[in-house]
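lol ok so funny story. i was supposed to be doing the assay writeup but got distracted and ended up predicting the structure for this chain instead. priorities right. anyway since i did it might as well share w the group, maybe its usefull for someone
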Amino acid sequence: MTLTTAPPRPPAPGPLASPQRAGRADRAFRALTCGCGLVVLVILTLIAVSTTSKAWAAFTHNGFEFFTSTRWAPSAGVFGSLPFLYGTVITAVIALVLAVPVSIGLALFLSDIAPPRLRRPVGSLVDLLAAVPSVVYGLWGVLVLAPWLMGVYRRIGDLTSPIPVLSRLFAGPSTGRGLFTAGIILALMVVPIITSITREVFDTVPASAKEAAYALGSTRWEMVRASIFPHSQAGMIGAVMLGLGRAMGETIAAALVIGSSPQISAKLFGSGDSMAAVIANQFGESDGLHRSALIGLGVELFALTIVVNIVARLVIARNKRRA
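and the output, tada:
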């Protein structure tokens, strides 16, 4: 006769295993997360209401011309924000044009191409760029980059002078401080942000999708184009939009290298100004209607950032539906 031992009895369920207590814990956690989300919405609403109320004097004094006029004359009580909106958009677009290809290339290198011994140090160096204070970028741009770019801009202007459209865009003379220089500095600042997010998105691509592409005879670039990019498109768009928001809202670095010229000009190498830079440069010496107008610039920048984020959400949702 063989003796069989009974299987061990499972341990008694703890107090949290009861359905009643688990349900209460889930409801409490749901209430806590909803409360955190509502706190964020309340803070954003309070920021919008308080800043709009302080800027209302400038809005009523200038009317709709505050958003459409090109004249900014605090001594005359005339405030038009269109040149600063133009400078903000132009520098942000230049930054994205320069930063997005580099960021996507770095993310691909770190996720799929670099040998394992290089991924960690290179990734750490890229992340370290995000920790550098913006004033350091601005000082480097003023003291090192702008004097060197002055000669580069002059040579580019001479080469493009016979071409009708380019002669207008790259016309001189330039002091090295201008819209394009600010775009370069902003590109350096957003590269680590876009690279880090894009690299994390690339790492979520299933290995089976990459192996299937290789099994069909695809080259590495064909695998990237057919497997990685379609799977990561929504995340890449989100990373680019996050970098765009950082580029539009950057203050100190842009204020140091943009040139501070309240005019709309097609010269990319010429001086300009952005909304954040104007606020930083003039807020300390402003009062009354002038200060209200500067706060109005902040409200406009805040609204522009919200619009960019809403557009990014719509684009991401549309790409997800198509996928």
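Strands lie at 72-73, 78-79. The chain has twelve helices and two strands.
back to the writeup now i swear
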